[in-house]
Specification:
The chain is of the alpha/beta class. It has 2 domains: about 10-140 and about 280-320, Metallo-beta-lactamase, Chain A; about 150-275, Rossmann fold (3-Layer(aba) Sandwich). The protein has 8 helices and 19 strands. The strands form 3 sheets. It has a 7-stranded mixed beta sheet with strand order 7-8-9-10-11-18-19, with helices on one face. It starts with 7 loop residues before the first strand and ends in a 19-residue tail after the last strand. The model is unreliable at about 330-340 (pLDDT under 50).
Length: about 350
């Protein structure tokens, strides 16, 4: 007799009936397994949470006093009649893919992932399975990421050029992931790096677990702009052009995102300079990751789902679109007065 599917897609999220848990559910459930701390994957209101040990500081920072259990990468846990295990996803520090197995049936829910090492996140680890749930945020051939040295040269050149023009460089990036990577690309010999409270709060949570980051200075209402000549400001995108940024005088606004690969996005964002930086896999990365799993069945979630699914089917895979409430590369840094 055929057994019921190990994972099913429900209005609450990806569900394992036999284990009695959901993965990254978007509506309140009794037990949630979480791939990482971004707001579209880790939400409030669940009865209990299980996540990678490395994700715990950020989850507690963002969700407060939750009932949270953790596992090390590669550590199996029996839940009901299934075995679960977290494997690095390379997306942001502490991010994971979740392997769910019952007998010889293996599913992997990848969450968000990036296959190129960034020097901060635990490197992506391919996991063989029959069923693979993938994002497709950048699932078009146009999305190909430049190398690290090229992006660093562009960022630091813009910093210097902005100062030479008498403008303060203000760089917009999401606090968990993108801002961290930019810190490793910026050259502190040019000047100090000042951070918005939303960025610095995440930095503090990750420094507390041993992550090494360059020195930064948190901006407060008492911060004197003249005390930091040559400084660059690093802030959530929503702070660009805000009263917080205007306090530092004339500015040149930059924005880091994979969407900067598309023509016209910088203009629509009303920024002076765009930098192609993403915490998601590009076109080549998506295809490589799926090939590495050896999965025959691929479930495509947020992003260019229809296009990417057709591509996978043309390659001979059994691929289908699965609607979810995951957001891909979207802003999830709500800025409060306390953070500003």
């Amino acid at each position: 007799m055929a057994r019921d599917p190990l994972l099913i897609f429900t209005p609450e999220g990806i569900h394992c009936p036999e284990g009695g848990f959901h993965i990254d559910p978007w509506r309140p459930v009794a037990r949630a397994l979480i791939t990482h701390g971004h707001a579209d994957h880790a939400r409030e209101g669940h009865g209990a949470y299980l996540a990678p040990h490395a994700a715990a500081p950020v989850l507690r920072h963002r969700l407060g006093d939750i009932r949270l259990g953790t596992l090390a990468y590669g550590e199996p846990r029996e839940i009901g009649g299934v075995t679960v295990c977290f494997h690095p996803a390379g997306h942001v520090p502490g991010s994971a893919q979740i392997r769910v197995a019952r007998g010889g049936e293996v599913w992997v829910v990848s969450g968000d992932y990036k296959v190129a090492p960034d020097g901060l996140s635990e490197p992506f680890e391919p996991v063989e399975c029959q069923h693979f749930v993938t994002e497709s945020t950048f699932g078009l051939p146009v999305f190909r990421w430049p190398d690290r040295d090229q992006v660093a040269a562009e960022l630091n050149g813009w910093w210097k050029d902005s100062l030479a023009a008498g403008r303060r460089p203000v760089l917009g990036a999401y606090a968990l992931g993108k801002a961290l990577r930019l810190l490793t690309l910026l050259d502190p010999s040019i000047g100090p790096i000042l951070t918005h409270g939303a960025v610095e709060a995440t930095n503090a949570a990750l420094r507390a677990q041993g992550l090494s980051l360059p020195e930064t200075v948190r901006v407060t209402p008492e911060t004197d702009p003249d005390a930091y000549p040559g400084a660059l400001l690093l802030a959530p995108p929503s702070a660009l052009g805000s009263r917080w940024a205007r306090h530092f005088g004339p500015s040149s606004n930059g924005f880091a995102s994979g969407w900067m690969r598309l023509r016209g996005v910088r203009r629509r964002r009303a920024v002076d300079r765009g930098f192609v930086v993403s915490d998601h896999a590009d076109w080549a990365g998506l295809n490589w990751a799926i090939d590495q799993t050896k999965a025959e069945n691929v479930y495509v979630t947020h992003g260019y789902t229809e296009n990417f699914t057709r591509w996978l089917c043309d390659k001979g895979l059994n691929a289908q679109v699965v609607p979810t409430e995951f957001g891909g590369e979207v802003e999830d840094d709500a800025v409060t007065e306390a953070e500003a």
